[in-house]
Every structure is written in C-alpha cells, then in structure tokens.
Write a structure and sequence with these properties.
Layout: H1 9-38, E1 49-56, E2 60-66, E3 73-79, H2 85-96, E4 105-111, E5 114-120, E6 124-125, H3 126-132, H4 138-157, E7 160-161, E8 170-172, E9 178-180, E10 187-188, E11 200-201, E12 208-209
Length: 212
C-alpha cells in the first residue's frame, strides 16, 4: 500500500493544497521575472559604451558594448520590429536556457520605446571558421559537433525547439567554444506554454517541415 494510503484525511488535505502550488511555482516565477524585466527601464550605459554594429537582420540589429572599467564586452540586440508576443517569447526562452553551449542572456532593457536584449559577446561565427578562415580540423569539428549536440539535447530536454540551427546562428566564444544564438522562431513544444504549429520554418537548405 502506498504511503499516501496511510495518511490521515487532514494530512491528505494539506497535500492536495500544497501539490498545485508546487506544480505552479515555476509558472509564477516565470511570470514574475517577465514582469520584472518588462519594467526594467535604464540606460544602456550600465553595459558600457557603444562600440560598433556587429550584425543585423530583418527584425533586429546587434551591437557591441564595452564597459570602460574592466573592458567586459556585451552583445546588445536592438529589436527593429514592434515589441510583441513573439519578441517577448524569444527573450523568455533565451533567458531560461542555461547551458555552456548556449549564449547567455543577461537582461532586457527598455529605453525610449525601444527594447534591447543584453547577451554574452562572442567574437566569431562558426561560419567564418569553417569557410573564411579555413581553420577547421577534424578534431576541432568533432569537438564543435559534440558541444552542439549537448546544447541541442539540453534545449529539447527543456521542451524548446530552436528551429533555425545553421552555421550563421552558431558562435564561438573567446575560448573557441560553441554558443547557439538567435531564438527568434524558437518555440516550446512541452509544458504549460507549449505551442502546436503546422508551418514551415527556415530557408533551403535549412528548411524544417513540421509533421505534428
């Protein structure tokens, strides 16, 4: 007989009260953190001075910021499109993922009706290492692939599908380690906020067909 069967009605009543709270606690924490970040309005000067543009796309541009006191660098993503649920979900997914092979997301800053996502700075794209610099060896490629698999496995275990994995969305940090970036079309396929989709994502030859 299970341990619950030996409990008194009063004890079971406490458990029936506590269990939903325990299950919903991660949800409450996510909502609290989201609200806290949405109301976080400061100057980007907290993250140093703007150095240069380091990347751009259809929905955002990425800029290099550097602190003057210790030369620490940040990648700051400036959203070009209007702030909406898609951008909010992108940030929530990115900041929830904590893994050595995934770029760290530090903060969301609101300044004069514009939104900025503050992230770990990585100086090189894997694309450049493979095609431009011609510096990839079999051993380094094997190491990179293992790191990538570790990162993707972690994401899937967290119920997140990236949906846009390609060389240009994989960075290398200062130590040459893999860092997956850009969760603009990522989505949760498991958990309270999961989505059911039936669309195509990406571009040839990276096209993904959803068959769910």
């Amino acid at each position: 007989m299970s341990d619950l069967g030996n409990r008194s009605p009063a004890t079971l009543g406490v458990w029936s009260y506590q269990l939903p709270i325990m299950l919903l606690l991660p949800v409450f924490l996510t909502i609290f953190c989201t609200i806290a970040h949405q109301t976080h309005e400061i100057s980007l000067n907290e993250y140093g001075e703007h150095q240069r543009l380091i990347g751009s796309g259809g929905t955002a541009s990425v800029h290099l910021y550097q602190r003057q006191n210790d030369s620490f660098k940040y990648a700051v993503k400036s959203f070009l499109s209007k702030w909406d649920n898609n951008r909010r979900e992108e940030f929530e997914i990115a900041i929830s993922l904590q893994h050595d092979s995934i770029v760290d997301t530090y903060d969301l800053v609101h300044v004069k009706e514009k939104w900025f996502q503050v992230m770990e700075y990585c100086p090189r794209r894997l694309w450049n290492a493979v095609y431009s610099e011609n510096s990839t060896t079999i051993s380094s490629a094997t190491c990179n692939f293992r790191q990538l698999v570790d990162g993707v496995t972690y994401m899937h275990n967290q119920g997140v599908a990236h949906q846009d994995l390609k060389l240009s969305n994989i960075m290398l940090d200062t130590n040459g380690n893999i860092k997956v970036i850009d969760f603009g079309i990522a989505y949760r396929f498991r958990g309270l906020f999961k989505k059911t989709i039936s669309r195509r994502y990406g571009m040839v030859p990276h096209l993904y067909f959803d068959v769910s």
